[in-house]
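In line with agreed milestones, the collection of sequences with tokenised folds has grown. One record among many is set out beneath this paragraph:
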Amino acid sequence: MFEAFFVVLKGKGIAVTPGEWLSLQEALDKGLCGCSLSDFYMLSRMLLVKRETDYDRFDLAFGEFFQGIEKGTALSSRLLEWLDKPEMNELLQEKRSEGAFSLERREESAEETEALLEKRLKEQTSEHNGGSYWVGTMGRSSFGNTGASVGGIRVGGKSGHQSAFAVMGERKYKDFRDDRIIDNRQFQQALRRLRQYSSRQDLPRTDLDVEGTIDKTCQNGGFLQVVMEKPRKNAIKLLLLMDSGGTMLPYSQLMNELFQAVSKSNHFKETHFYYFHNCIYGKVYQSPVCDYGDWIDTEWLFRNLKSDTRVVIVGDAAMAPEELYSPSGNYRGPNDGLPGIGWLELMKEHFRKSVWLNPKMAQGNAPWRESETAVKGIFPMFPMTVKGLKEAMEELMQG
């Protein structure tokens, strides 16, 4: 039963096991959700979803399978206030018991109903209860709640007949996803994973040694004996190289968030920022404008930054193959005798730990897939998402 639903869930990336699916079938055989779509939703989510990061994927899969619509229509707080009528549920029960409330099935398609809702939301200026035109309660229109229309769009309130093909204004688990684009706070949280403490021998003992103090106090018959230790310093050195301009323009704000996060992370021993366009060549730029001449030699990085510096390269790798393979493929400056891929290999060879973050991984037959695949062959590449950033930081700290 519902084999197609299983396929949709797998297509959304939810790891449903055969055992979990059989448990759902068993629960259905025992009638644990009756004929309620909402109860089936809760039951299936409980049995099939193992991580909160998959809740939003499950909601999208559920809406897709049960012919839901995209929940993107803006609803004013005033409209939701008009529709929040708990007392209508009691009136609905009374009318049902009196046989004075018959259901009607709408003939419009989901697309037609959604278009009509958009139109009504622009027109409506007051509260409506009953009727067959406006968004309201206890009516026969295709929008609202506690009404007699089967198959419309429930807006606000609580579902009465479990027949609406969409519940507007939810998607409340989308912020739990681990594949969404990250923000400044998440950048800072991830960067805290880059810690490798060391104690410098030439520093005075200025930090309280809690465990040592407890131990010495116990040995001293309970009389407090304070023990101090030398402060530990984060020994991590970080080099951030960011692609700027061209296909990276849509991600300018994201790049700024990353720059700000690294700038505010004052726990690194050293931080260095440079820019490039499409690929790293013989020069790296000192500002995101990438002006001609406003650069330093890439070889300067090799001479002045030690091999234990962690390197984070951010770019979409969306370049033509000649930009990567041709000794004259850099149209914004000099190649300095090597193709782009040669410079990337030198970066990988000099710095022991490096990763590439990509905000736009190639999909399908994207024209830059060949270049992206070549870059992946040199650097571990991760999508610029919550999960991708976490995995990239773990990669930098291995070994």
